């Protein structure tokens, strides 16, 4: 009898275990089958809405002359670069063209345009297809302007320090493929079009532009790199491009920078300012492009190398798209990674087995553009998770308020439908993003800690939902941290010192000083620091009537203000101005060595100085 009871009890336990296992298995399968929906209004939500449509990319290339639709759009035309173009000069100007496609599929859209001189900002516009804005990204698209950096030697002040050269807008004709301005998509936007006629409407939001042609097309498949069959040795010397001498940029923020603590960064000087790099933290956003020109003395195969600094995003790679003579020679050039390192590094495209590209004798260009590369989709997915978590947080505080009673059980898992399921889904998605991020970047730790932390909290909420009210502020902080992670990873900073163009059979030049030369450079810098005035900006005048101005800001801002003063006030009135960077205004005034003019000071500083003056007068009396 006893054995029989034991047997029955074991059977009940096994049945319960098996049923719970099945239930858990079904729950897991159900959870894995779900997909985190894209944030409403994004490009990915537009793509998700086309689910079930075959992702065809027809090999069509439709070119539309914009001037044919100028009259119907009530717009004027202009002659530029020996061509005719439609001019959009006022906010709200709208150009509507018609395109007829023969096959259904996804198409890219590009504009051949030239910016018209105005305020120097990017051209902003809205795109409609068949009178519809398909997703939010179409409401604010950009066409970048082009800026030229003065070639030749940089100007110097009367102390031998190099000054930032003038950047003037350059009017150029070029083609720009519509893409995401924030780097959330790796490829240009693809618009689904059915066979027949479609209207494309271009509405200007800011600045002025001349449109020559609209192109509806699909980019031809670019082959992967293959080792050339026959390589002949190049007898000419390798070409060294000093990166600070760029020909064009698409942003006025991309200007030459100065690195003074590294003798290997050329040109260098132990005490004088030398502009010797470009990029840095100013070169972080998609559509920011830098173009250089170089000349080859012999036709043949060449590889490309870079001396760069990427210590901005700890543990992360920075990504660039690289074109040679305006084209991607191979698919790999659409995403070239520059690994993180705390110091300056040299890298060749292809690394240990350099990629060689055939170049004819003569002039060529190389251009580098910011891209988020292969982590673009990951960033977009985490951004969707941020949106969903913010939505959950708002639902929670509608019940608990922003300061909930930690001793009260609000029964949130019952009050908010699917709360636990959604939290578990988001945790699963973010965990998969974290795993993929580690696999692609090879980094783990501080760079993924934010993802790990939010997943841990969501998992714990699912097990202990009654703890949500007492941890609500931490939940809000973690959501903000996740949003910051998304923003940080969209930015791709990179600083370039040199570009090497090395012919087959030659070695890439080495400009590394030995340890004794570096030590001697440091000693000279230290000794000269006792006699060098690093606070003064631009020309310094010692004789005659001089106005002394102090400013408490960065050197870049100070150089701009100093340049404006020299070119306007000093030139027109004949009064020299000494400009210096200093934040010790109060101490200098109290010592009787203050400036004539102080700029960029806090609002309370004049009151402090007035009180000091009153106390000083009382002391004298």
Uncertain runs with pLDDT below 50, 5 residues or more?
1-6, 10-33
Q: Say how many strands there are.
A: 29
Helix content: 25-40%
| First and last CA, distance | 114 Å
Please outline the major beta sheet: 7 strands, antiparallel
Broad structural category: alpha+beta
| Count of separate DSSP helical elements | 11
Oligomer: single chain
Tell me the Rg in angstroms.
31 Å
Give a summary of the structure in a few sentences.
The protein has 621 residues and is an alpha+beta fold. The chain contains eleven helices and 29 strands.
Description of the structure:
This protein has 621 residues and is an alpha+beta fold. Helices cover 29% and strands 26% of the residues. The protein contains 11 helices and 29 strands. A hairpin with a 2-residue loop joins strand 2 and strand 3. Helix 3 runs antiparallel to helix 5 (419-441) and helix 3 (376-400) packs antiparallel against helix 7. The chain is globular and about 80 Å long. It starts with a helix and ends with a helix.
Secondary structure blueprint with pairings:
Layout: H1 2-33, H2 43-48, E1 61-65, E2 76-80, E3 83-88, E4 94-101, E5 105-115, E6 123-129, E7 141-143, E8 147-149, E9 167-169, E10 174-177, E11 191-193, E12 196-206, E13 209-217, E14 239-242, E15 248-249, E16 256-258, E17 275-280, E18 289-296, E19 300-309, E20 318-324, E21 336-338, E22 345-348, E23 357-359, E24 362-370, H3 376-400, H4 412-415, H5 419-441, H6 449-463, H7 472-490, E25 494-503, H8 515-528, E26 536-537, E27 547-551, H9 555-573, E28 577-581, H10 585-590, E29 597-599, H11 605-620
Parallel strand pairs: 27-28, 27-29
Antiparallel strand pairs: 1-13, 2-3, 3-13, 4-12, 5-10, 5-11, 5-13, 6-7, 6-12, 8-9, 8-15, 14-25, 15-18, 16-17, 17-25, 18-24, 19-22, 19-23, 19-25, 20-21, 20-24, 26-28
Helix pairs in contact: 3-5, 3-7, 5-6, 6-7
């Amino acid at each position: 009898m006893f054995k029989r009871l034991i047997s029955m009890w074991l059977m009940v336990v096994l049945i319960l275990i098996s049923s719970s296992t099945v239930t858990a298995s079904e729950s897991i399968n159900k959870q894995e089958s779900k997909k985190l929906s894209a944030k409403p209004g994004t490009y990915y939500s537009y793509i998700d809405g086309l689910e079930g449509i075959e992702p065809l990319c027809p090999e069509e290339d439709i070119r539309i002359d914009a001037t044919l639709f100028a009259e119907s759009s009530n717009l004027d035309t202009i002659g530029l670069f020996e061509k005719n173009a439609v001019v959009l000069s006022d906010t709200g100007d709208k150009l509507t063209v018609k395109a007829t496609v023969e096959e259904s599929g996804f198409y890219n859209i590009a504009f051949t345009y030239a910016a018209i001189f105005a305020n120097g900002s990017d051209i902003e516009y809205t795109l409609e297809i068949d009178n519809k804005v398909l997703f939010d990204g179409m409401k604010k698209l950009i066409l970048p302007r082009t800026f030229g950096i003065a070639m030749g030697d940089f100007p110097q002040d009367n102390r031998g320090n190099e000054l930032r050269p003038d950047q003037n807008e350059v009017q150029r004709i070029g083609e720009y493929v519509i893409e995401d301005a924030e780097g959330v998509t790796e490829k240009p936007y693809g618009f689904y079009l059915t066979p027949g006629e479609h209207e494309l409407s271009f509405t200007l939001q800011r600045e002025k532009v001349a449109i020559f042609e609209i192109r509806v097309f699909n980019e031809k498949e670019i082959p992967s790199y293959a080792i050339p069959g026959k390589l002949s040795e190049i007898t000419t010397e390798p070409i060294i491009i000093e990166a600070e001498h760029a020909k064009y940029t698409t942003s006025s923020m991309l200007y030459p920078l100065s690195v003074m603590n590294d003798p290997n960064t050329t040109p260098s000087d132990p005490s004088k300012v030398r502009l010797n790099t470009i990029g840095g933290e100013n070169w972080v956003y998609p559509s920011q492009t830098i173009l250089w020109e170089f000349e080859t003395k012999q036709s043949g195969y060449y590889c490309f190398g870079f001396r760069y600094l990427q210590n901005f995003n700890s543990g992360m790679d920075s990504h660039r798209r690289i074109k040679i003579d305006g084209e991607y020679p191979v698919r790999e050039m659409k995403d070239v990674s520059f690994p993180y390192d705390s110091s300056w590094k040299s890298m060749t495209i292809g690394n240990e087995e350099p990629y060689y590209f055939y170049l004819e004798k003569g002039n060529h260009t190389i251009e580098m553009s910011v891209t988020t590369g292969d982590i673009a989709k990951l960033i977009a997915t985490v951004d969707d998770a941020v949106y969903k978590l913010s939505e959950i947080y708002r639902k929670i505080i509608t019940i608990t308020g922003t300061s909930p009673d930690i001793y009260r059980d609000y029964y949130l898992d019952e009050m908010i439908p699917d709360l636990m399921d959604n939290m578990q889904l988001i945790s699963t998605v973010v965990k998969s993003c974290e795993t993929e991020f580690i696999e692609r970047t090879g980094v783990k730790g501080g760079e993924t800690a934010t993802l790990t932390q939010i997943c841990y909290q969501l998992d714990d909420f699912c097990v202990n939902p009654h703890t949500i009210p007492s941890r609500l502020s931490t939940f809000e902080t973690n959501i903000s941290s996740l949003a910051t992670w998304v923003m940080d990873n969209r930015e791709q900073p990179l600083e370039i010192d040199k570009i090497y163009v090395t012919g087959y059979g030659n070695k890439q030049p080495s400009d590394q000083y030995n340890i004794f030369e570096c030590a001697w450079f440091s000693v000279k810098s230290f000794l000269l620091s006792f006699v060098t005035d690093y606070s003064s900006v631009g020309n310094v005048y010692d004789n005659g009537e001089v106005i002394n101005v102090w400013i408490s800001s960065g050197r870049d801002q100070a150089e701009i203000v100093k340049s404006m003063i020299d070119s306007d006030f000093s030139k027109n009135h004949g009064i020299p101005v000494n400009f210096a960077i200093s934040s010790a205004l109060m101490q200098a005034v109290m010592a009787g060595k203050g400036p004539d003019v102080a700029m960029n000071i806090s609002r309370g500083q004049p009151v402090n100085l007035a009180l000091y003056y009153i106390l000083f007068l009382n002391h004298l009396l």
